[in-house]
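re the bet — no i am not wrong, look at it urself. input seq straight from the record:
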Amino acid sequence: MDQNLLRSYLATVYELPTPAGPIRASLDGDIVTDPTGLPELLQKSFVVLTAYNPRSMLLPRKVNEQRHLVMRDLLILGVYRVEGCVGYEEDPEGTWREPSWLVHGMDRDEAIAFGRVFRQNGVLICRNSRPEIVVTDPTCDDVGRTFVGNWRVRA
């Protein structure tokens, strides 16, 4: 995976829903030795998926929205609990925001399959309080190649 693309994935701020209100976190934190200090959601297994802008190609808003709804419907049919979330760049002048789905309890192989079907460069998987970017596009790198990050909770 291109190093600039990987850096941007690791620095993306994800706004994730919780019962106590949204938490903001990125994958560019320091190594966490005691994950019990993380918010409860970040200690659980989940996946963040999107159908927007396949292979980093900007698509018209309506096309992205339709793809995103199809993904949600497929996830719900798969009996997953799905919640809306968003990834964005923290730069105050940045305009990039990408709606995503927080999917509870999905396994790694199925997450990779969804990423491939929707032509994403990669997907975010959290297991054992550890976030990972997993490659799903064979033109980026070997499918399944994993880049491990560390949660950084943002204020």
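see?? The beta strands are 13-16, 23-26, 46-49, 81-88, 97-104, 122-127, 130-135, 146-148, 152-154. told u. also The chain has a mean pLDDT of 95. so pay up
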